[in-house]
Amino acid sequence: MLSIIEENHSYTQMRDQMPYLWSLAQQYGYATNWTALTHPSLPNYLAIVGGSTFGVTDDQEPFAHPIDAETVFDQALNVGKRARLWAESMPANCYLTNASRYGVRHNPWTYFTPSRARCNSYDVPARSFMTVAANNRLPAAGMLIPNGCNDGHDCSLATADGWLKARLPTVLGSDDFTSGRLVVVVTADEDDHS
Hints:
By secondary structure, this protein is α/β, with parallel strands linked by helices. It has helices spanning 11-17, 19-28, 41-50, 72-78, 116-122, 129-134, 157-172, 175-178; strands spanning 2-6, 83-87, 123-125, 141-145, 184-188. It is globular and about 40 Å long.
């Protein structure tokens, strides 16, 4: 599965302001009855990869919330499958603090202390994503995190839609996807109060 997380927008906003994404939704399917677990962003990201908010109620960096738990990435790696998280604008692997348009609160793997070594190996800057997708090497557990502009947080949903349009055709044309080995989910972490 490849998860791509947009920021702080509702289904209606995304449908109405992201024509490329909406065309994919009409072609492949979409869900309309979903809500965030809470506000702000970080607890929702933690729940996506760890199954819980772990009591986190803010967006602080990993030093404030060291989580002693396993992730979906660990589960894949434990059974010999591939796992990877790509974070756009992240300066180095498993980067633990905010940097420019990279928000560590959108990179959940960095919070899970038991798998810090794996995070250092498999939580990487997004520069390699398109090559991996084109070479049919997408993982069993994957996440692609746009930066603070391309996720629609600081910039428009049209910008986010264009970013997806530049990447998803390669993913959707890959053997990983066309063979049925890969599910792609594009969602928003929350809509500020959903």
